[in-house]
Amino acid sequence: MSWNELAKKQQRVTEILANSLAHDRLAHAYLFTGGRGVGKKDVAMHLAKSIFCLDDPMDACGTCINCQRIASGNHPDVYHIAPDGASVKIDQVRALQKEMKMRAVESNHKVYILEHVDKMTIQAANSLLKFLEEPPPGVLAMLLSENGHAILPTILSRCQTLVFSPLSAEFITSLLIKEGIPSGVAQVASQITTNLEEARLLSQSEWFAQLRAMVIQLGKELRQQGSQALFTIHDQLQRNDRVKEELPLFLDLLILWLRDILYHQIGRHAHIVNKDQQNALQEQTFQWTQAHILKGIDVAMETRNRLERNANPQLALERLVLHIQEG
Ligand SMILES: [Zn+2]
């Protein structure tokens, strides 16, 4: 990992930190906020390594003994705290404070990485606050959180906040393809989530492939007369518990599919996500009118809301089929 590589994921944040490091202007405490999988921990680890790296103190080499010790959690001046169970407990923060009062073992620096700081108990947060008010020299704390809104204002005001942006679909797609995932699957998965790890799991899982197949089959049946679409839904819900659990995802896939049919119709091929399904798209292009597609997307979104409000899945889907068919 290097700043350049990290910049592909998080350009702004990476530039700010690399710059501050180069000019010896790092803050004593940072709060990194952003969704899961956007690279907060990677950036924190790289900054920690850079501070102690024997080869390149501006941009850690990743291979020297210090970089390796930090990566494996064995550097005496780099501390890593993650929630012990559901929350960061006061004992963890107390141990940390005690640690902070001691001199750095091997240099003038100490680095603390605290994950999920929004999950600190109030006591733990208060004792962290004491440190943030009077940070010992040479200490750098990086607080990581997926949920910046849940951080106490008193802590917020003592940290420099860096907001990590969600990963772009293009970035996730290209990474998954490099890992050997077929491009069509990678493309669909990266439209569904901005979390790289989640996108990777989706693209590798059997049930995700099943959900996609079900969506494409329904795309055809929804525009045919008769009750085949209802039968398919009933059948899938009966046979596959996972389908039942993943109905919001199913609806997202349905919306993507209908959108692709529309793009296919109006010739905007570059926008198509299900690129590996050209034949099915070609076929269904003639089945759907634009009015039907828009109605379908509308009903799918409405159904998603209903499910969020705990509607009965079977009934919600039957209603979806009937509404789209009568449209
Ligand atoms: Zn190094």
What does this structure look like?
The chain is 58% helix and 8% strand. With 327 residues, the chain is an alpha/beta fold. The protein folds into two domains: 3-163, 3-Layer(aba) Sandwich (Rossmann fold), CATH 3.40.50.300; 205-326, Zinc Finger, Delta Prime, domain 3 (Up-down Bundle), CATH 1.20.272. Strands 2-3-4-1-5 form a five-stranded parallel beta sheet, sandwiched between helices. Helix 5 links the parallel strand 2 and strand 3 (110-114). The termini are far apart. The model has no long low-confidence stretch (mean pLDDT 90). The structure holds zinc ion (ZN). Zinc ion (ZN) is lined by residues 49, 53-55, 60-61, 64, 66-67.
What's the helix and strand layout?
Blueprint: H1 3-9, H2 11-22, E1 29-33, H3 40-52, H4 65-71, E2 78-81, H5 90-101, E3 110-114, H6 122-133, E4 139-145, H7 153-156, E5 160-163, H8 169-178, H9 183-192, H10 196-204, H11 206-221, H12 228-239, H13 241-245, H14 247-265, H15 278-285, H16 290-308, H17 313-326
Parallel strand pairs: 1-4, 1-5, 2-3, 3-4
Helix pairs in contact: 1-2, 3-4, 5-6, 8-9, 9-10, 11-12, 11-14, 12-17, 14-15, 14-16, 16-17
Bound molecules: zinc ion (ZN).
Zinc ion (ZN) binds next to helix 4.
Question: What is the structure about, briefly put?
Answer:
This protein is α/β, with parallel strands linked by helices and 327 residues long. Helix content is 58%, strand content 8%. A 5-stranded parallel sheet has the order 2-3-4-1-5, sandwiched between helices.
